[in-house]
Write a structure and sequence with these properties.
- This protein has 471 residues and is of the alpha+beta class.
- It folds into four domains: 135 residues, Beta Polymerase, domain 2 (2-Layer Sandwich), CATH 3.30.460.10; 77 residues, Orthogonal Bundle (Hydrophobic Seed Protein); 193 residues, Hypothetical protein af1432 (Orthogonal Bundle), CATH 1.10.3210; 45 residues, no CATH class.
- It has a six-stranded mixed beta sheet. It has a two-stranded parallel sheet with strand order 7-8. The chain has a two-stranded antiparallel ribbon with strand order 9-10.
- The protein is globular, with a radius of gyration of 27 Å.
- The N and C termini lie far apart (67 Å).
């Protein structure tokens, strides 16, 4: 963890050698984190002539100079050590003639504090014109001025992001936030999604997502959720589609926060599978949208009058594709989200008595390492279905089955799936098959036969492939 001494050493290494040391201030999140005994994510500095100072530092250290847009209309110059990309300074132009004026233009009091860097690379007392240190201790989010949200509407989401980290939004700030939330339409989707995923990364994101929904902000960002509200379901459910989806998010979060309780000795492998944050955040997002296809597929079964949602998984995947594209998520993130929505029912189908090992292996091969988040999503889905037709024993048995599948995956299934194929596409060509999409299907069928033990050698695989290719 970087403390004041570590920060002083970093600044000494970077700033030594400047002909003259201009008025430099460490500001914002760096000061907030230091006062909270947290390791600062960045070293944020402001000064007059930021572009010139950053350029001189880059030249002095043969470092890379990257122009960033961390805030609207305020370029930030990142000076990065070419040998260590984690070692960098962010230098921005001082807004106004004084540091006090700069701080006045920041969002919340906890971010409106500064420390001046002196000749010895030490710090004088904290410059705190708005009581940020007091609010930090009281875990309070308070705006610095009445124009905070109109100046940058993304601060609406940022306030909730701090709330997800244990802060309370002060009443006047909440009122100003609510009256400005419609201005989020002016903000780029990239900035919006970045804040939302920071919320999802926290351990209590469901509480904040519910609050965003209660203020109408979530429906503004994702109008596709509006038909989910009031969309009643069958006897397996005790909530409408949207209420159920929020509960699934809550249950996913509970599982992620208590992996050892669900996966026991496999919990470390599950944690590693989910990664450092992005995959878990996407899993939470999938939980929120997994049933988004239900309103458009709602119907009544003939003869019984029972509510049904035929093919809602496929319809949901199509809607999820449109949302992910609109939100300009990476191709990898889009593929992950769409696959989870499309596959969220499969564990239910595969868990029933009579399903063959080959059918389960086929799904595991299809999903690969994404089988773990898919199992967690399905666990949370069933845990959240508490209607009169869904008994406690049924829910517990299914959750136990999913946990066992995860254990089996890490203990044996993954090793089976990672075995090299017994034959390749080149072998199929030699057997007379024309190159094309069908080649992959044949190879997959041979691999499935290998998975279930019907094929155990290269000669047997070639013989099986010949059978498949026979007219």
């Amino acid at each position: 963890m970087m403390n004041c001494r570590d920060l002083k050493q970093r600044l000494h290494a970077w700033l030594t050698g400047l002909d003259e040391l201009p008025g430099l201030y460490v500001v914002g999140g760096t000061v907030r984190d230091l006062l909270s005994d947290k390791a600062p994510a960045d070293i944020d500095i402001v000064c007059h002539g930021a572009k010139v100072v950053a350029g001189r530092l880059a030249a002095l250290h043969h470092a890379a100079l990257v122009v960033m847009q961390k805030k609207p209309h305020q370029p930030c110059y990142r000076v990065v050590d070419r040998q260590d990309s984690a070692d960098y300074l962010d230098i921005a132009e001082l807004r106004g003639p004084t540091i006090e004026e700069d701080l006045r233009q920041r969002d919340f009091t906890i971010n409106a504090m500064a420390m001046k860097i002196d000749r010895n690379f030490s710090f004088s007392m904290v410059i705190d014109p708005f009581g940020g240190e007091r609010d930090l201790k009281q875990k309070s989010i308070r705006m610095t001025n009445s124009g905070v949200f109109t100046d940058d509407p993304l601060r609406v989401l940022r306030a909730f992001r701090f709330a997800a980290e244990g802060f309370e939004i002060e009443a006047a700030t909440m009122q100003a936030l609510a009256s400005s939330s419609a201005l989020l339409a002016q903000v780029s989707v990239e900035r919006i999604m970045a804040e939302l995923f920071l919320i999802f990364r926290t351990a209590q994101s469901c509480r904040i997502i519910t609050a965003l929904d209660g203020h109408g902000i979530l429906g503004q960002l994702f109008p596709e959720i509006l038909p989910m509200k009031g969309c009643l379901q069958n006897g397996y459910h005790h909530k409408d589609v949207w209420g159920h989806s929020l509960l699934v998010l809550e249950q996913v979060e509970h599982i992620l926060n208590h992996l050892e309780d669900y996966f026991c000795e496999t919990s470390a492998a599950v944690c590693q599978n989910l990664g450092t944050g992005e995959r878990s955040s996407l899993l939470k997002c999938a939980a929120l949208f997994h049933d988004i296809g239900k309103p458009s597929t709602k119907g009544l079964k003939q003869g019984t009058g029972r509510i049904s949602f035929t093919n809602h998984d496929q319809a949901g995947a199509e809607l999820m594709t449109l949302i992910a594209e609109r939100m300009k998520l990476s191709n990898q993130a889009q593929t992950f989200l769409v696959r989870l929505v499309k596959e969220h029912l499969q564990p239910l189908f595969l868990s029933v008595e009579g399903v063959t090992v080959a059918a389960r292996m086929r799904w595991f091969r299809k999903m690969g390492d994404e089988v773990i988040p898919a199992l967690i999503l399905s666990m949370a889905d069933v845990m959240s279905s508490r209607g009169p037709e869904s008994g406690e024993e049924y829910r517990q048995n299914f959750v136990s089955w999913c946990a066992q599948m995860a254990r089996d995956y890490f203990a044996s299934i993954r090793k089976i799936l990672e075995r090299p194929r017994l034959i390749t596409g080149h072998d199929l060509i030699e057997l007379g098959m024309e190159p094309g999409p069908g080649m992959g299907e044949v190879l997959d069928q041979v691999s499935e036969a290998q998975d279930n033990g019907a094929v155990t050698s290269r000669d047997e695989a070639l013989a099986y492939a010949r059978e498949l290719l026979m007219p």
